[in-house]
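This entry is set out below.
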Amino acid sequence: MKKVLRQAIEEPVRRQLESLGQSYDVAVPPLVSRLVQLAGEERISILEAAMKVKQSANAAAFRRWLSTIQANLAAGDPGGAIEALRLLKELERIAARWTDELDVKLGVTYKRRELRLSWVPRIGALLDLMDKPTVRDPILNRKSYLTFISWWFDHQP
């Protein structure tokens, strides 16, 4: 999982910043950085923040997701390996979208939907020539482990 996140988020962000003459150095893992931020925001100790996060439903879902991957790999059969790879590829796909769109909630809490206005009577053809507006369509059956990983990188107050 570290490799997937490093390749999908950290390396593309590092390359983009370096192309702008900026440096990017991750000395602290994103989860640890987020725990420190949470502790400061809520004026609690880092240990209390870690315990609070550990007890969250999203963290429990993340641990279940990881144990599923580990169980599939431990099975030692091709089917288990394929399933583990499928789970990791899903994370890689979502993380790549975060980097492309610079939004860690995309694909986790909402999807972007493009509106097609060509159906509007009389002016639809004209509206179809314009840029297609997009809306944020909430994801109702969210994957909690993705919400947890997304939270690591979401440093907005």
